[in-house]
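DM from R.C. (forwarded with permission)

"hey, sorry to bug you on a friday — could you get me a structure for this? deadline for the figure draft is monday and I only need the backbone to look sensible"
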Amino acid sequence: MLGEYRIEGRGAAEIAESVERAVGAGQLEPGQLLPPMRELATRLGVNPNTVAAAYRTLRERGVIETAGRRGSRVRPKPATTTREQPTVDVPEGVRDLSNGNPDAALLPLLAPVLAAVAAEGDRRPVLYGDDPVDPDLARMARAAFDADGVPDGPLAVVSGALDGVERVLAAHLRQGDVVAVEDPGWGRVFDLVPALGLRTVPVGVDDEGPRAEDLRRALESGARAFIITSRAQNPTGAAVSAPRARALRDVLREHPGTLLIEDDHGHGIVDLPLHPLAGVTRHWAFVRSAAKAYGPDLRLAVLTGDAVTVDRVRGRQQLGPGWVSLLLQRAVVRLWADGALDGPSVAGAYRDRREQLATALAERGIPSHGRSGMNLWIPVPDETSAVARLLHAGWAVAPGARFRLTAPPGIRITVSTLTPQETGPLADAVAAALLPGVQRGYV
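My reply, with the result:
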C-alpha cells in the first residue's frame, strides 16, 4: 500500500507531519492509499483516535481526502507540495491544444507600457503608506462595473482571480465549511478549496451556466459559499445567460447568508454580455482578472464586493504582501486607456476559432460545448482512450478528469491558437478517436 515508506509518530501531530513530509518529498504519490486508521494505530502502538486526529489534520491541510469505506488517499494535487499533477506529455511534432493559454499574438505589447510606467515610478516613487489601489485603476474599474450592472462597492486589487477567490473564502469561512463549485469546473478551485480545510459540493453546468436546481440542492444541504464563473467558464465555455441569472438569483434570495464569489476572467476576450448575480446575498465578491486579456504574467485582478468582505480582504492583505505592485496597476491602466482590447478583434478571433471547430465537429456527428472563451468541451465515453488516440494522431488535448468531480467524462480542447487550416484535420481526428470506423470524419 505504501511501498517502502513507513509512517512514523506517536502523537497526532507527529503522524500528520510524517505523512506530509513524505508527500512533499514524493515518497507518497498523489492517489496513493493510506492504511486504515485501526491498522496504522496497531502498527504504531497508539490509540485509533490519535490516527483519526492525524488524518483529520491532513484533510484540513488539503493533503489527503477520505471517501468513506474506500479509505483515505493522497489528494491528486496535495497542497503540501508544489509538484504539478501529471499533464499530457506532448512529444515533438504534436500540436499542443491542451494548455489553456491565450494566443500570445493577441496579447498587447508590454515593453513600451512597462517602460512608461517605470519612468513615472522614478518620478513619483511608491512608498509605504500610499494608497494600495491606483486611483485611475479604481475609477476605470468602477466605470466598467457600473456599465455591466455590478453593484457599487469598495475595491481591492489582488494577484489574479484565484488569489481573490482564496482571500474571500478565508475572510468568511471556517474549516469544514462546504463550498458549492461548478462541475465541470476550474481544477485550481478543486485544489484550493480543500487546501483551505473546506469541502466541495458539485453544481452541474450546462451552456448557460450552473443549474439552478443543483445550486438549490447544494445550499439546502448546507453549502455556505458558491463560486461561479460569469463567462468563458473553464473547461466548458459556459456563459451565464439572462434567464439563468434570474433563476440563480431566485435561489440565492432563498439563502441570503450564502457567500457569493463571481469570477469574470473572461472580461476583454468575450463578446457576450455579463449577467451578474452580485447584491442578492449579504456577502459577495466580484473578481475581474487581467490575465487572459493582457497576459498571465500580469498577476492582477480587481475585486469589488460588500464593505465587510472587501475590508477583510484588504486588512489581511496588509498583513502579508501589503499591496499588488502599483507599477503593474498603472500598466493595466495604460493598456485599458490605450484601448488594447478595443474593437471585436480579440473576442472575435476566439469566437471564430471556437465556432469553426464546433461546426466542423457537428458536421462529423460530434457534439461539443463552448459558448464563450477559448475552450471547447467534448463529452467522451473514455477520456484515456480519446486522449491517447488524439495524441497518436498528432493532437494533444486535456483529459477532463482534471476538471470534474462527478460530471461525466470529457476532453478539453483549447482553440486559442487554432488556425482555419487545422480545423478540419483536427475535427477528423476527434471523430476518428470517438467514432469507430470513421476514416474521413463524416458518418
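R.C.: lifesaver. The chain has 15 helices and 15 strands.
me: no worries. Residues 345-363 form the longest helix (19 residues).
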